[in-house]
Amino acid sequence: MGLAMRMQRWRIRVTGVVQGVGYRPFVWRLAHSSRLSGWVRNDSMGVLIEAQGSRTELAEFCGRLRSEAPSLSLVRDILHETIDSVPKEHAFRINTGQKEADPHAFVSPDVSICSDCLAEINDPADRRYQYPFTNCTACGPRYTIITKLPYDRASTTMSDFEMCTSCRREYDNPADRRFHAQPNACPECGPSTWFIKSGENQEIRGRDAMQAVKESVARGGIVAIKGVGGFHLACDARNSEAVAKLRERKHRFEKPLAVMVADIATCESIAVLSDADRVLLESRQRPIVVLHRQEGAESLCELVAPGSDFVGVVLAYSPLHSLLLRPGDVWVMTSGNLSDEPIAYDNDDAIERLRKIADAFLLHDRRIETVCDDSVLRVLDGEVLPIRRSRGYAPLPIKLPTDGPPVLAVGGEIKATACVTKGHHCFLSQHIGDMGNQETLSAMENAVDHLLRLYNIKPDSVVADQHPNYLSSAWAEQFSRKHAVPMLRVQHHHAHVASLLAEHSIVPEEKIIGVCFDGTGFGTDEAIWGGEWLIANASDFERYAHLAYLPLPGGDACIRHPSRSALAALYQAGIEWSDSLASVFVTAAKERTVLDQQLQRNFRCVPSSSMGRLFDAVASLCGVRHVVSYEGQAAMECEAIAARKLDESQFKPYDITVIDGDIQQIDTTHLIHQIVSELLRKRSAADILVRFHLTVAEMIARISLNARAKHRIDRVGLTGGVFQNVLLTRLARQRLMHEGFEVLTHTIVPPNDGGLALGQAWIAQRRTVLLHRERYLFGGEAPSYDQDR
């Protein structure tokens, strides 16, 4: 017999997202079709296989383990070694999982209902007809129910429910699509739902509960619905009174509300879809996708997204949602919380916190281990632009190009996420919220505890933002003291650039021109930065250029009042505060006097290079927005107005003045003079905003060209919350590419502060590595990190 036909036995290690996604039954079927013997099992590192056959058969088998893997899996590595053969072995079996001390497996995110399960819940002859917790290995909850690795039922909140005989038969059958589907259940043995009215104890259970929700929404009620990762507040998106009531009770007066629909046809009745939008909407992650509204759409009231050209739409993604919404229904489906609080996910807590908002509750008894809000995405030239990375994406790892010690990073103050590192991988948490209260701090602590416990990580250090007053930094200090690990601080905009470098797996020594535009970030000179060009890599940065400082009277008060930024910009430019300018006209005379005195005396005026505040100033000057009720409101409205006009005719950017020096500056006073001149000549706000967007794109290109000439760098990265603006990002990228630059944008983590923790973690990891190496060179112990096996 030739060498190729000689019997061999290989031990095969498969790593990645390979648990809870149907990978073991896939291996079992593949081994049977390949006539191999042996076994497969889960363990804390992923999937372990011993397969026996000819060398040719085994090599083909290994190739198919990746090429034919289940759609929900994410195979990272397949390694094998030859071991002793087992005589007289003829079968291939699936063994039960075995726990090891150091988990290296990856956890699958929660996945939307599959077509097979959807067909079952709509089939009156099926035993799972209208059962809202139907799932299989191709769909259902994962991250929100897992308590520890490896991923087995005993390690999930489904351990509360003992499977009936029928479900156990499916669970134990390798040929069944529910083989080892950990959340497997049916009406006989699984979780159940019930409906109660706010302030009442009478329960309506089962299918009647679902009908009660529909009737309540149809009557104009607000229902708090417990879903996969927490509670939503739902009402009829066509009912203006219901939406107004929800806004009033939730204290969310203008910020757009997301809506849920049952199918693409309904979505097309309210929004304009590109092919890329459709792919995102129907993806297994089922995020909220920000879409252009259909003009005159009757199935959506104006209060859902007042004054906006956009609407966030999500397709029903769980069996519970699929049973509630019919084709044609459009329901507001917004986070179940009071504004600025984390979303509710526990029944008793939800009833207590949401009883003044919701008229009724749809509850269930499947415990949520990890709260997980909906993800939000936009499409930019056919590519994904994340706005919020949460359900469906967290906690998929982001692979770094280098190894390093375990680090915990806690992000910033708004759109908070946490990040932990292990070897080459960063695990970014789900969206936590804005760190403005004790409830959100507790949510941060729970998210961190879950990630550390899940992956058995003990951080060598904890890292936070440099801002002295961030609550997240205070929490990091407490963690540092409690666990006796050093605390590091990272500059805000360097972290933004590093997050972009990390997601593109750029080697740590390589520098890019990082263009970081946002609203607020504490600078190394204690000013507020936010219009920055950095020459940066994963270890360090230098500030190459920035917007000239604008004095902000009252500091953070200008964030809520763009008119203040406008008046400050006028003052700095030496332009009289004339009532003919909208920003001046809307400001009361008494307030103008106070602001003028503050600016003259430089009293409580914070210097800021923020592009976000420049957008605010221009928005107010153009009469678009003088007071905001949510972050980024003025800039979003400016983008929408400019985008409408840009398609109609061509415009030129305003003249740009660059102040040379060791650090270059953009003179914004010259820009303000040009804008005011056009306003006084009655030029429309739309025309001015188009030219403003073009000017900012030209600024980016102009300074980047200067940086390339000095530093010989051809790669530019666009990061920071301002680059949620699709119009600006598109214009800047086109302009840079025309000049021959390679342009990096975000496609995995948000450009806003939701991606900050990733950058912090990688900077801290690289600095620790360099410090260890330096100590080693002077006679210390050689650095050693847990390698990915």
UniProtKB/TrEMBL annotation:
Q: What sections of the sequence does the record tag as coiled-coil?
A: none
**Pathway field:** Protein modification; [NiFe] hydrogenase maturation
State the UniProt keywords alphabetically: Hydrolase, Ligase, Metal-binding, Transferase, Zinc, Zinc-finger
Question: Which residues of this protein are catalytic?
Answer: 24, 42
Biological process (GO) annotations held by this record are: protein maturation
Could you tell me which PROSITE patterns the record lists for this protein? ACYLPHOSPHATASE_3, YRDC
Q: What class of enzyme is it?
A: ligase
InterPro entries xref list: Acylphosphatase-like_dom, Acylphosphatase-like_dom_sf, ATPase_NBD, Carbamoyltrans_HypF-like, Carbamoyltransferase_HypF, DHBP_synth_RibB-like_a/b_dom, HypF_C, HypF_C_2
Please give the Gene3D superfamilies that the UniProt record associates with this protein: 3.30.110.120, 3.30.420.360, 3.30.420.40, 3.90.870.50
Q: What is its EC number?
A: 6.2.-.-
Offer an example of a GO molecular function term for this protein: carboxyl- or carbamoyltransferase activity
Q: Catalyzes what? A: C-terminal L-cysteinyl-[HypE protein] + carbamoyl phosphate + ATP + H2O = C-terminal S-carboxamide-L-cysteinyl-[HypE protein] + AMP + phosphate + diphosphate + H(+); an acyl phosphate + H2O = a carboxylate + phosphate + H(+)
Hydrolase among the record's keywords?
yes
Keyword flag GTP-binding: no
Q: Where is the YrdC-like domain?
A: 207-392
**Can you give the residue ranges of the Acylphosphatase-like domain?**
9-96
Tell me the NCBIfam families matching this sequence: hypF
**Family to which this protein belongs:** Belongs to the carbamoyltransferase HypF family.
Protein name per UniProt: Carbamoyltransferase
In its UniProt entry, the species of origin is given as Novipirellula aureliae
Gene expressing this chain: hypF
